[in-house]
Amino acid sequence: MLAISTMYNALEQPDGAAMFDALKDLGFENIALSRHLTLEQVEQLKPMFREIGQAHLPVIQNYCPILPGTTQSDVDKDKVQLASLDNDERKEAIRKTIQTMQLAIDMEIPTVILRLGEVDTYNRSYLMTDLYNYGEREFEALNKKVTEATEWRKRKEAKHHDAALRSLDELNEAALRLELNIAIENRPQYFQIPNFDEVGLFFDEFYGSPMRYWHDVGHAALQEKLGLCWSQEWIKTYGEHLIGVTLHDLQELDPYHPPGTGDLDWDETFAQIPNEAVKVIEIKYIDSEEVTQARELCETCV
User: Fold this and answer.
1) Are 264 and 250 in contact (CB under 8 A)?
2) Span 263-299, pLDDT tens digits
3) What residue segments make up the domains of the chain, in order of their start?
4) What pLDDT is attached to residue 53?
5) Whose CA is closest to 195, among 205, 204, 185?
6) How many CA atoms lie within 13 A of 56 on its CB side?
7) Which residue, among 277, 186, 190, has the nearest Cα to 232 in the 3D structure?
8) What is the average pLDDT across 238-250?
């Protein structure tokens, strides 16, 4: 199955029905709900989605709709996190996640993608960016700083692991009760959870649960460009848990471009993805012709 995420035009089309029609006009039968939707857009979309049926609604991102007090353009700066060390915040994150899960049940969506949060450490991502941009000239000095940043994360991550495990324990129970899949997603930045090893940690703990792995191709490629992890290792290692993939291209370090318009080798990428995995194109708003070309490229993988 190939779908397009409402990330594409959620900010461009405040009316949910118009947003739905625009996505259908691009040639997509399947639509994935992103974190960028307002409550009003969700309510406007519900009757449209009920018409096309469950088979065309593969996945929803948590949190959906956006949290109160959050703007659509600011959804990636989570104010409540499932791996928070503040127990009240973590409990609120669980409550909001279960609301998304209940929306999934109402709209007959089988899978909810979770983002767990981040390690509470000073964000030194700019060091990785500098290493990418200037590494040949200043590799030794920058690489040392990058190593220091990742080591500092390691010193602070254990408590966040415990918090994430407590949250996932409750959410797995809820998913089992609601007969839903919950999927943990790989993230692009070194301080975000989970990194490569943490995916294994969580599946070791919850093997046999409704938890699955959701692979973001662009996030993995960005981590590789920043020297954090080889992109092909994620699916190779965690493929048995894989339920779906997000497809977008990178132009240098800039993500969410249509597949085929950036740096990724899509023949190599598609060769890794199992046929049965759900595929979701998640891209910025751009000329419709490029979206059509990206859809046609990705249809070769379906």
Assistant:
1) yes
2) 999 999 999 999 999 999 999 999 899 999 999 999 9
3) 2-124+159-299
4) 60
5) 185
6) 15
7) 186
8) 97
Q: What is the pLDDT of residue 89?
A: 96
Please give the radius of gyration of the chain, using alpha carbons only, rounded to the nearest integer.
19
Q: What is the pLDDT of residues 116-125, one digit of tens each?
A: 999 988 788 8
234 Cβ contact partners less than 8 Å away, ≥ 6 residues apart: 186, 196, 199, 215, 220
pTM: 0.93
The correct CATH number of 2-124+159-299 out of 3.30.200.20, 2.60.40.420, 3.40.140.10, 3.20.20.150 is: 3.20.20.150
CA atoms within 13 A on the CB side of 128: 19
Looking at residues 10-31, what average pLDDT do you find?
Answer: 92
Q: How far apart are CA 81 and CA 19, in angstroms?
A: 29
Closest CA to 197 of 172, 222, 233: 233
Q: Which residues pair with 242 in a beta bridge?
A: 213
**Residue 185, Cβ neighbours under 10 Å: how many?**
21
Q: Which amino acid is at 256?
A: Y
Distances (CA, A) of 222 to 247, 270, 301: 13, 17, 21
Convert the pLDDT of each residue in 47-60 to its tens digit. 887 776 655 889 99
49 or 156: whose pLDDT is higher? 156
| Strands ordered across the beta sheet of 242-247 | 31-32, 2-5, 278-281, 242-247, 211-216, 181-185, 111-114, 59-61
Residues in the chain: 302
Dump the DSSP string for 267-302.
Answer: HHHHHHS-TTSEEEE---S--HHHHHHHHHHHHTT-
Cβ–Cβ under 8 Å, residues 103 and 136: no
Could you say which DSSP state residue 114 is in? E
